[in-house]
């Protein structure tokens, strides 16, 4: 085993494909990500860049026609890519929990909310305390405590069905369910995308408060650079199945290196900004037949001859402090290409 870069999670060379009638979609092209206990990492990028597929890969929830073809998913020294389904079930929900993008769709439509949270707690405790008789009364107390901590009236909420919840309530229920087992890593896939602005702020503030209390690490998937800047310690920028830049929030916003990261930041409105917002020219490539070399080169204003044929690797940016862990995959900063 290679030395891990993060003591909690280290994703190395992750490749995922989807076999379709139109051809093989090369969704992830050697993703590199790592994080330590208690850190919050934001994964940002355009729609279709591979953010959610990366999250589902960590949970080993890629289903046919998709498959993980190569790569390692180290979690606390165990390679999730090589574990059996039984071993994975002892980790999913307990050590790694996930808040899905559409909370109502992720809940069982024919079970009351309280019963679903209790069932989740019971499953995790059963795997941890094999052979012991489950204390359902204690599980109900945990459920009610968690609903209260996310700002819901448990006496009313526990007897509601998912279709009776508003979007904000459903997301709070998912947060309560995910954090009820006190996971070491929480994956939040666009937790505020379907909510209005005021509810988004409430959910982010709530999530921020709860993960600080529990010291849970968070992998946050979002389109919004502002959300990542507000919530996260580190940011990974993805484009067309690759992580093109990785570093601390301060280093990414203060000194963005990759042309794609610069394009994303130039498209973000800011208070006091008077110039026109700049869009990134071109479109996201078709991942059935992606460009050779660097996948961003057809849209890149700094394109070099090597970009057409050679694939840049994610390397440390020597201009940044080591604590910022700033890495970039671009030939502008790799003189040996």
TrEMBL record:
GO MF terms, alphabetically ordered: ATP binding; ATP hydrolysis activity
A Gene Ontology cellular-component term: plasma membrane
Gene3D superfamilies cross-referenced by the UniProt entry: P-loop containing nucleotide triphosphate hydrolases
Membrane topology classification: Peripheral membrane protein
CDD domains, per the entry: ABC_NikE_OppD_transporters (cd03257)
PROSITE patterns in the record: ABC_TRANSPORTER_1 (PS00211), ABC_TRANSPORTER_2 (PS50893)
Keyword vocabulary terms for this entry: ATP-binding, Cell inner membrane, Cell membrane, Membrane, Nucleotide-binding, Translocase, Transport
SMART domains, per database record: AAA
GO biological process: peptide transport
Matches recorded under PANTHER family: ATPASE AAA-TYPE CORE DOMAIN-CONTAINING PROTEIN, OLIGOPEPTIDE TRANSPORT ATP-BINDING PROTEIN APPD
Protein name: Oligopeptide transporter subunit ATP-binding component of ABC superfamily
Organism, as annotated: uncultured spirochete
